[in-house]
Design a protein that fits this description.
Length: 316
C-alpha cells in the first residue's frame, strides 16, 4: 500500500481523491454539530491552534475559530496589521516564532502564493493553508464541494457541470474548487472575459488535476452555458490584486434574475464571499431560492472541523 502523507493541508491540487472524499465524509458527519442538532465535541481539548491571518478575512478566520472551539481546542489569533510582520518580520520568522511557543497547528492566510508551503518546511507542527495569494484555498474548495454535494444529494458529481464565473486568474478559490469538484467527478467550466479566464488556464488546471475524473474547460459565453449548469459559482472581482473590468462587466458576467431563470430547474447559485453586490450578483440572486451561499458558510465550519480532526485528532 502506498503511504500518502496527510501531514498539513496545503492544497487540493495533489490531494488524492480518497483523502478528499474522506474529509468530505467526515465534514458531512460533523454538520449536525455546526447546526446545533448535536452537541460539541472535546476531541481537541487542550490543543492550541494559531490563526496567522496576514490578509483580511471574515469567513475563514471565524470559521476556523468556531470549528476549533466546537472541538474543544483553544485558538490564538495573529493579524497582519497588529503583528510584527507590519515591522518587516518575514513570514517564515513569524511562523517559526509562533511554532516555538508550542502551538499544535498553524492556520495561515498570506498574500504570497506558496506561502503556506514555505512555512510548512520551517515548522514542526501541521500547517493548514487558509488562502495563499492566487495559489490555493483548500478548505474553501472542500466547503464548496460539501455544500454542493449536500444540495445535489450525492458525493459523486459525475455528469454534473459546474460553472465558475468571473475573476478566475486571480482566484485561489477557483483553483481549489476546480480541483475538488473534478476530483469527485464534476466537469468544470471556467467562464469570463479572456483577461480573467484565459485559455491557458484550461491546460494548467486539467494538467495539474492528478486524481480528478472530471474535465476543465474555459468559455467566454456565460449566457450560452447557463442552460447546462448544475451550479453557477460566481467569483469576487479582486480589485486589490489588480483586476480591471470594463463598464459592461456586470451586464456580461453578472448573475441577474434573468440569467438565473435560464439555469436548469434545480440548479444552484454559489459565491465564496465577500460579494460585490450589483457586480457579481444582484440582491435577488444572492438571496434568492437558488442561492446556497450561506450553506457554503455553514459547510465551512464542518470542513474545518474535519481538517483539524485529521491533523490533530486522537487517531494520530
Ligand atoms: N471566502 C473567503 O475566504 O472569505 P474571507 O476572505 O472572508 O475569509
Amino acid at each position: 500500500m502506498t503511504s500518502v502523507s496527510t501531514r498539513h493541508v496545503l492544497g487540493l491540487r495533489e490531494m488524492p481523491r480518497e483523502r478528499l472524499v474522506g474529509l468530505l465524509e467526515s465534514a458531512s458527519s460533523l454538520l449536525p454539530v455546526v447546526t446545533g442538532e448535536s452537541g460539541p465535541r472535546d476531541a481537541l481539548a487542550a490543543r492550541v491552534i494559531a490563526n496567522l491571518f496576514l490578509e483580511n478575512s471574515t469567513r475563514t478566520r471565524v470559521s476556523f475559530t468556531v470549528a476549533a472551539h466546537r472541538l474543544g481546542a483553544t485558538t490564538v489569533d495573529l493579524l497582519g496589521s497588529t503583528s510584527s510582520a507590519s515591522k518587516g518580520e518575514t513570514l517564515v520568522d513569524t511562523a517559526r516564532n509562533v511554532a516555538a511557543m508550542g502551538v499544535d497547528a498553524i492556520v495561515i492566510r498570506c498574500g504570497a502564493s506558496g506561502g503556506a508551503h514555505l512555512v510548512s518546511r520551517h515548522v514542526d507542527c501541521p500547517v493548514i493553508n487558509a488562502g495563499d495569494g492566487t495559489c490555493e484555498h483548500p478548505t474553501q474548495g472542500l466547503l464548496d464541494a460539501l455544500a454542493l454535494t449536500q444540495a445535489l444529494g450525492s458525493l459523486d458529481l459525475t455528469g454534473c457541470t459546474i460553472g465558475i464565473t468571473g475573476d478566475i486568474v486571480h482566484s485561489r478559490v477557483a483553483r481549489s474548487a476546480a480541483y475538488a469538484l473534478t476530483s469527485i467527478g464534476a466537469d468544470v467550466i471556467l467562464i469570463g472575459p479572456p483577461s480573467m479566464a484565459p485559455r491557458s488556464l484550461e491546460g494548467l488546471l486539467a494538467g495539474l488535476n492528478q486524481t480528478g475524473r472530471g474535465t476543465v474547460r474555459v468559455c467566454e459565453d456565460f449566457e450560452g452555458v447557463l442552460p447546462i449548469l448544475d451550479a453557477a459559482m460566481m467569483l469576487r472581482v479582486q480589485f486589490e490584486r489588480g483586476a480591471a473590468i470594463t463598464s459592461d462587466y456586470a451586464a456580461m458576467y453578472g448573475m441577474t434574475p434573468a440569467r438565473a431563470a435560464r439555469l436548469p430547474e434545480g440548479a444552484f447559485i454559489m459565491h465564496p464571499g465577500p460579494i460585490n453586490r450589483g457586480l457579481e450578483l444582484d440582491n435577488e440572486t444572492a438571496d434568492g431560492p437558488r442561492s446556497i451561499i450561506l450553506n457554503q458558510v455553514t459547510s465551512g465550519v464542518a470542513v474545518r472541523m474535519a481538517v483539524l480532526l485529521e491533523q490533530l485528532g486522537p487517531h494520530l
